[in-house]
Specification:
alpha/beta; five-stranded parallel β-sheet; nucleoside diphosphate kinase activity; kinase
Length: 221
């Protein structure tokens, strides 16, 4: 049953993305933003947007928005994956990212620099990106926010008091961190071997972290 459902998801998401591909006339410049849950990716991305004018696309936010969209054919599936701390099928995530980039570039052709936050999260994500976006997007580098697990958990639990997110609880966080360590860290290490990773100590205050971020973007952004 699950196999048939995922096969259906793959066909629909891939077909949807296929018909939108011609819209991507200009090649977007992509900066992957990775780190554990609570590392401060979203906060720092918002500050980068304000200072440098990039467009921030959060894979998690896009998935949550699709989950809550009335009539979404993927909403229940996304909810189940997020609640269990698992990674949503790559075809869905890339389809949402493509749509967001297309809409942004259609509205303003100068907006071609994208911070993609929380993606790629595993080998399947990376292969799906390479398969779908090869030659259609230029990955400049990976911005890696490195922060210890306990600090990340404490931050998320504090955020959960007001965020309303179903995954900001200790049980889900432990699952998400396990997924991050097992699946996402190897992707970061792969990009490190290519010389494409900039590591930031994310345990510091927001202001001090952004000082380090600015040094990177002033030089290479």
């Amino acid at each position: 049953m699950l196999y048939r459902l995922l096969s259906c998801v793959t066909r629909k998401a891939t077909a949807s993305a296929f018909y939108r591909l011609p819209v991507l006339i200009m090649k977007p410049q992509v900066y992957f933003v990775l780190g554990g849950p609570g590392a401060g990716k979203g906060t720092q991305c918002a500050m980068i947007v304000e200072k440098y004018g990039y467009t921030h696309l959060s894979a998690g936010d896009l998935l949550r928005a699709e989950r809550g969209r009335p009539g979404s054919e993927f909403g229940e599936l996304i909810e189940n994956y997020i609640r269990d701390g698992k990674i949503v099928p790559v075809e869905i995530t890339i389809s949402l990212l493509q749509r967001a980039m297309e809409e942004t570039m259609k509205s303003n052709k100068e907006n071609k620099k994208f911070l993609i936050d929380g993606f790629p999260r595993n080998e399947d994500n990376l292969q799906g990106w390479n398969r779908t976006m090869d030659g259609k997007a230029d990955v400049k580098f990976v911005l890696f926010f490195d922060c210890c697990n306990e600090v990340c958990i404490d931050r998320c639990l504090e955020r959960g008091k007001s965020s309303g997110r179903s995954d900001d609880n200790r049980e889900s966080l432990l699952k998400r961190i396990q997924t991050y360590v097992q699946s996402t860290k190897p992707i970061i290490e792969l990009y490190e071997k290519q010389g494409k990773v900039h590591t930031i100590d994310a345990s510091k205050t927001v202001e001090k972290v952004f000082v380090d971020v600015q040094k990177i973007f002033d030089k290479e952004g």
